[in-house]
Specification:
Layout lengths: L4 E5 L10 E3 L6 E3 L12 E5 L5 E5 L3 H12 L3 E6 L13 E5 L12 E4 L4 H14 L2 E4 L8 E2 L2 E5 L2 E5 L6 H14 L2 H20 L3 H12 L1 H10 L1 H20 L1
Parallel strand pairs: 5-6, 5-8, 6-7, 8-9
Antiparallel strand pairs: 1-4, 1-10, 2-3, 11-12
Helix pairs in contact: 4-5, 4-7, 5-7, 6-7
């Protein structure tokens, strides 16, 4: 199971977008002209699959180290480039390439994303310009105007990920909110999701009626179901869930 990296990204080349699909109410309209809506100002939140993808971090300080570790956790093929690489030696792994060298554009080749985390602002700007030329997503730490994406604060509970972003306005506030949410969403929520994943696969195959399936899943994921799970444990919850599934199957046969 791979861990996906969460990012809020912006499209830096909106001129490439030729048409806009817009759905007011139930009507689909096509438009290739200007819109009254402010397109391109927001961010598009995605979970990015980085497994076996090349990700480059330029820099070897504490911030670069933290970014490098998160990329490794996401399964990326990590490349770290820095004048002095000593600060990164404790993260060596088969998926890590440490390059002790002056920055060069050639190190960005085939990268999916790049994080510039040096203390040299001019170098950071150069890295960003190189990424724009190569069409690689780039994040320059603490310089929102030089970022194609922002890395949000994330609550991790197994496969349950809750991301908090501030559009780069104040990452510290995102971190504060993450701590509050960590007290609300516990490891039990992640365990509950694992149970739901297994059961959902069966339901998709066994409950053919779309409306019944939607109602069934809605009942299985609600607060009452989660409370039963936490108070009685996974085995008892599975038994209860089986009874609910049987009831819905009977309804579907009528």
């Amino acid at each position: 199971m791979s861990i996906k990296s969460t990012i809020y990204s912006r499209f830096s080349r909106p001129e490439k977008v030729q048409k806009l699909l817009f759905r007011p109410s139930n009507n689909l309209l096509l438009s290739s002209g200007p819109s009254q809506y402010n397109i391109g100002m927001g961010k598009y939140p995605i979970y990015l699959e980085l497994k076996d993808k090349r990700a480059v971090v330029v820099g070897a300080g504490p911030v670069a180290l933290r970014k490098a570790r998160s990329l490794l956790e996401a399964g990326a093929r990590l490349v770290v480039v820095a004048d002095k690489i000593a600060g990164m030696l404790n993260i060596q792994s088969p998926d890590t390439e440490l390059i002790e060298s002056k920055y060069s554009k050639e190190y960005l080749t085939e990268a999916v994303i790049v994080i510039a985390a040096t203390n040299d602002q001019q170098l950071n700007k150069q890295i960003y310009r190189d990424c724009q030329e190569l069409e690689i997503l780039c994040n320059v730490v603490d310089q929102p105007e030089l970022c194609d994406f922002f890395v949000p604060a994330v609550v991790n509970r197994g496969d349950l990920k809750i991301a908090i972003g501030t559009e780069g306005d104040c990452p510290a506030y995102a971190g504060h909110l993450r701590k509050k949410l960590e007290g609300i969403f516990t490891e039990r929520h992640g365990q509950f999701l694992s149970e739901l994943e297994t059961l959902r696969k069966r339901i998709i195959n066994e409950v053919t009626d779309t409306d019944n399936r939607k109602s069934l899943l809605g009942e299985l994921v609600d607060d009452e179901s989660f409370t039963y799970f936490t108070e009685n444990g996974p085995a008892a919850w599975r038994d209860r869930a089986e009874e609910i599934v049987k009831q819905f199957k009977v309804r579907g046969q009528k």
